[in-house]
Each structure stands twice: as structure tokens, then as C-alpha cells.
Design goal:
39% of the residues lie in helices and 17% in strands. With 332 residues, the chain is an alpha/beta fold. The chain has a single domain (5-330), classed as 3-Layer(aba) Sandwich (Aminopeptidase), CATH 3.40.630.
């Protein structure tokens, strides 16, 4: 379908915003310190992971605005992330597929973004997140058809992977690493009718059907990892399907002194790790803070207009990124 002049101008504006954010992110990586220090942190040494750069990407993604599947916002985000990952040395490709819009039946093109590091290695670790936003903040108590920008639920995983990417070219491991950003995780207009996990389901089915020369040893899903009040419990489906990975990552956090990884279970979450476990048979755990903003809060920020950068944290991104990086260095 040909874009109207108004649509083209809008897309051009958000692309310029995205490119400006890319330039700032590149500046942070070139001039950043070896670690990040945060006032009031329980850790006594700097965190050797650039949480601030990750947080700046999170804000830049949110500056684009809503990013539901098939939208101009999603296209601008894809352009920005492609520039970031390519500049860091990743091999970027889009895995495209088409679905029908659940409301009007029109064709919607979706794209999983795949970023390969050390693609020659026969065994790989899969690190993934979704990067689409829900069409509306349908859990918002005031404006359930308002504007949803998905800072934690949508931007946080992609932002963390951007900062992690700077460590990937020099990663000493027998494993290659693939980042995959899933589209269509929640292209949901009616939760009673519409289908979740479109991108991860397509990815899992293609992995089985194509039988690539490599294999994924383990998978880790990142979802809602930037909460300012970070509490990462062991997710119950992850324990069921990928218990050794869960224990290994949470024990890594314990050794580093990152107490936000809490060594007990709390929630059972249906998320993108289910198709990876059930269809692709890739043992995959979900690192997710489902208590947003905190356990026992009267009002959740999840799927509301309160899911904004101000309720997210560079320190949280730094801690999750550090744990994941250390786990990647030692995973067997």
C-alpha cells in the first residue's frame, strides 16, 4: 500500500528521532566508563555493564511513541536498532511473516529481528525479547484506549540487548549468541479472542522446519527487566522447562551480590518462552519482573499509561545485564 504524504512525513520525523538517539548511544559507548556506579546501591564496586547507555536507548525507543506491529513506530524502531547492532558488529536480518489483522482482516507484515554474533559456531545461546507494544493500555483504570509506549513491557529487553551487544564480539565462549527480537508478542485488541506470541511461534516453527546447521543449546527471554523496584523471582514455567538454566543464572546473581534475583518462585507467566520450549524444544527461561512497580502494589503499571521511562531504571538494566554477561562467560 502506498503511503500518503502525511504518513511519509510522520515516519520521517520519528526516523530522525531514532537516528539522533542512535548517535547519542554510540557516543555513550565510545566515552563510557568501565562500570556503572549508582547512589544508594547495595553493591560496593562499579557494575561492569553500561546501564545508563541501555536506559538512554529505552528512552529513545519510547520517544518514537507506540510501536504496535505493522506501524510506522515499529518501522522507525527497526531502523534504529539495525543501525545500533550493525555498528556494534552484529549480523542483522529480518525474519518476515504475514498475519491477518484481528479487527479488520487486513494483511499485517511482521518482522522478527535476528542479530548474530559468532555465526560460525555450531552451538548457540538464544537471547530474546519482544519489541512490539500492545495497541492500547487496556489495563489502565482511567484510559484503557489511551496511548501506550511500553517502556518496561516492550522497550526494556531491546534496550538491554543493545548494551549487551558491545560485549559480544570479544565474548570468550564456545557458543555463538543470537539476539532475537520478537514481533507480535501481544498484537491484542480483544484478549478473549486474539492470539499472543505470533513472532516467537513463527520463529520456533521455522527453526524446526528449516533444521539449520547450528543448534540452540539454551534460551533466555528478557521481559520487563527495567522496573525501578526490581524483584526477579524464578518464573514457574521456566522452572518446569529449563530448571538448570534458572538455577545457574540465579546462582550467578547470588555470587555477584545482585539480590534482586530472588531465589524462589512467585508467578506462572505465559510468555514468548512457551513456543520456544514446546515447539522448538529449546530449553528457555524467562527473566521477568511481573510485580510492576512492586509486590503488593495497589495498582500495577502493566499495560497502563504508567509504563513510562520514569518508572524504569538504569541500575536495574545494569544489574540484569551484568548477571547475564557473567552467565554467558561461564555457561557450559
Amino acid at each position: 500500500m502506498q503511503k500518503s504524504k502525511t504518513q511519509a512525513v510522520f515516519l520521517g520525523t520519528i526516523v530522525l528521532t531514532a537516528l539522533a538517539a542512535f548517535a547519542y548511544f554510540a557516543f555513550l559507548l565510545r566515552n563510557g566508563e568501565a562500570g556503572s556506579e549508582f547512589q544508594g546501591s547495595s553493591l560496593t564496586t562499579p557494575i561492569p555493564f553500561d546501564g545508563q547507555a541501555s536506559y538512554e536507548v529505552l528512552k529513545a525507543i519510547c520517544d518514537i511513541g507506540p510501536r504496535p506491529s505493522g506501524s510506522a513506530g515499529m518501522a522507525a524502531q527497526q531502523k534504529m536498532l539495525t543501525r545500533i547492532f550493525t555498528d556494534l558488529g552484529g549480523r542483522v536480518s529480518l525474519q518476515q511473516f504475514e498475519v491477518r489483522h484481528p479487527v479488520d482482516g487486513s494483511a499485517v507484515t511482521m518482522s522478527n529481528m535476528i542479530v548474530q554474533w559468532h555465526p560460525e559456531r555450531a552451538e548457540k545461546i538464544l537471547l530474546c525479547a519482544h519489541y512490539d507494544t500492545r495497541p492500547y493500555p487496556d489495563a489502565d483504570p482511567v484510559r484503557p484506549r489511551g496511548r501506550f509506549i511500553g517502556a518496561n513491557d516492550g522497550a526494556s529487553g531491546a534496550a538491554l540487548l543493545c548494551a549487551l551487544g558491545q560485549h559480544m564480539p570479544e565474548l570468550e565462549s564456545r557458543y555463538g549468541v543470537d539476539f532475537v527480537l520478537f514481533d507480535g508478542e501481544e498484537f491484542i485488541f480483544d484478549r478473549r479472542r486474539d492470539t499472543y506470541f505470533l513472532g516467537s511461534t513463527y520463529f520456533a516453527r521455522q527453526y524446526v522446519a528449516e533444521k539449520p546447521k547450528f543448534s540452540y543449546k539454551y534460551g533466555v527471554l528478557l521481559d520487563m527487566v527495567a522496573d525501578r523496584n526490581l524483584n526477579l523471582y524464578m518464573e514457574k514455567n521456566s522452572i518446569r522447562y529449563a530448571r538448570p538454566i534458572v538455577l545457574d543464572i540465579w546462582n550467578t546473581a547470588r555470587k555477584l551480590g545482585v539480590t534482586e534475583f530472588i531465589q524462589r518462585s512467585r508467578h506462572e507467566v505465559r510468555d514468548d518462552h512457551l513456543p520456544l520450549n514446546n515447539i522448538a524444544k529449546i530449553p528457555t527461561c524467562d527473566i521477568i519482573d511481573f510485580d510492576y512497580p512492586r509486590p503488593g502494589a495497589r495498582q500495577s503499571y502493566w499495560h497502563t499509561e504508567s509504563d513510562i521511562p520514569e518508572n524504569c531504571s538504569a541500575e536495574s538494566l545494569a544489574k540484569v545485564g551484568w548477571v547475564l554477561l557473567e552467565w554467558l562467560k561461564r555457561v557450559e
